[in-house]
Amino acid sequence: MTEILPPCPECSSEYTYEMSPLLVCPECAHEWAPAPPATESAAESGVVKDAVGNVLADGDTVTAIKSLKVKGSPTGIKAGTKVRNIRLVSGVDGHDIDCRMDGVGAMQLRSGVVRKA
Questions:
Q1: Which residues form a coiled coil (predicted)?
Q2: Torsion of CA 106, 111, 116, 117, to 10 degrees
Q3: Mind spelling out the 3-state secondary structure of 87-115?
Q4: Residue 44 dihedral angles phi and psi, to the nearest 5°
């Protein structure tokens, strides 16, 4: 089965060919690197999994699997702390869980440090 190659970005010629690792246009002699194949990450596809692979959803209850330091809090979060009613978001730096914790307040967590309760 042959792979369909993109047209030339310079002259829009459809007669491009592959000359490893570049694509070449025979009409204008333009050479370019092919775009990497588009793959969906877990965050883009909407599937968020916890540390052990369980799929998380809005409203779930999760448990911290290790102690976490929290800026502005002298105690932080201890391992085994339950967090109720989580909300999944596309946060900054891999923080994809938005929640409110007693004694700490509103915060974001990474799904890799929690497991579904």
A1: none
A2: -40
A3: EECCCCCCEEEEEEECCCEEEEEEHHHEE
A4: -70, -35
pTM of this prediction? 0.59
Judge contact between 8 and 16, C-beta under 8 A: yes
- The amino acid occupying position 84 is R
Buried b (16+ CB within 10 A) or exposed e, 91-108: eeeeebbebebeebeebe
Percentages helix, strand, coil for the chain (3-state, rounded to 5) are 5, 30, 60
In the numeric block, which tokens belong to residue 37? Answer: 């194949």
pLDDT tens-digit readout, 40-82: 444 455 688 999 989 999 999 999 999 988 887 788 889 999 9
Is the bond into 21 cis (omega within 30 degrees of 0)? yes
